[in-house]
Design the sequence.
């Protein structure tokens, strides 16, 4: 019997890939206007390498960008980048058009809802609150909170424990095969992959595949009816 659903956050409940890329490019433009001695494309390549090497949760991407270009840290240029990035990011931060409708329908069914996400706890909560979807979730689990992230099975087990349900009672919804679907499936959760974001063409199998979130509602209804 299905009693709960865990969601991935980025590119599952909102468009993470596109809005972050736009915010980074706008930040670079403002940094160049403030005196960064390079072109937009060259700065973008350097920034992408820093993000790849240091990780998306590293807190000094723009510091390292300025140091790489200028040879020293310029606080004015760094600050311009940070402020522009956050202003643009939060201006564009919106859930997918059908996210809230889907969450409402699932809550009406009496299901527990949760989020399992990689990232810094405060940042992930900030996204949920700014997206306006935090009230729907009974459990939010982050990799920073647990100390390990996806695809570690212990991380998913930690989420199940917090939700108070067994793996076979839970559906997991995510966009990535390697970090979402595979570990959830290995633990015995029913898996639904949503084909959105930059990983939508990644190969791999899930129990169900959807292109839009509302399709999940019918899948859940059928699973519940099948087990009654």
Sequence:
């Amino acid at each position: 019997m299905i009693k709960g659903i865990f969601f991935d956050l980025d590119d599952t409940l909102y468009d993470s890939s596109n809005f972050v890329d736009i915010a980074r490019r706008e930040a670079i433009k403002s940094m160049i206007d403030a005196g960064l001695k390079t072109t937009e494309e060259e700065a973008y390549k350097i920034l992408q390498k820093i993000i790849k090497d240091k990780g998306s949760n590293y807190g000094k991407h723009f510091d390292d960008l300025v140091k790489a270009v200028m040879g020293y840290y310029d606080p004015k240029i760094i600050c311009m980048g940070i402020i522009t990035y956050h202003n643009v990011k939060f201006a564009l931060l919106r859930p997918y058009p059908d996210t809230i409708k889907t969450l409402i329908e699932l809550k009406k069914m009496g299901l527990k809802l949760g989020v399992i996400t990689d990232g810094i706890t405060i940042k992930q909560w900030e996204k949920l609150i700014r997206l306006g979807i935090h009230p729907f979730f009974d459990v939010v689990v982050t990799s920073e909170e647990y100390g390990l992230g996806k695809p570690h099975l212990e991380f998913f087990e930690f989420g199940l424990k917090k939700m108070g349900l067994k793996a076979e009672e839970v559906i997991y919804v995510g966009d990535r095969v390697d970090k979402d679907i595979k570990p959830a499936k290995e633990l015995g959760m029913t898996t639904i992959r949503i084909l959105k974001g930059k990983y939508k063409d990644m190969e791999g199998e899930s129990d169900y595949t959807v292109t839009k979130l509302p399709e999940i509602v019918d899948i859940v209804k059928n699973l519940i009816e099948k087990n009654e």
User: Anything to note?
Assistant: The chain has two domains: 4-14+95-226, 17-92.
